[in-house]
Write the structure tokens for this entry.
Amino acid sequence: MRSRRTATGAVTVFRPRTGRSLAAVLVSAAAVAALTGCSGLEYQENICSSGEYPVLAVGSSGSDCVPDKEEPPAGYARYPHGKVPQHVDDKWDVYWRTHTLDRDGKITELHS
């Protein structure tokens, strides 16, 4: 505890408010974590809506979403098994920005 003598000679004692201060710090830290995405509850945007699956444009980095019960339209193909992007900026979404499928279904690197 700290104390201070006033002009009249009285002694004022300052008591630390550790209970309230600690609680305020913890609440503030939780708010910062939640607002900056550090909370572990990070939002990930899906590539396609529910009831759809992603397809890749043959020979380019283009893509689209097709209803589950439909086949890909002309010029599009299903992604190879195990290499289907699920969320924006996930491993496979990033990969297919620089790769594509040729007419035979072979994976090729895109050249800019």
User: Anything to note?
Assistant: The helical segments are 18-36, 91-95.
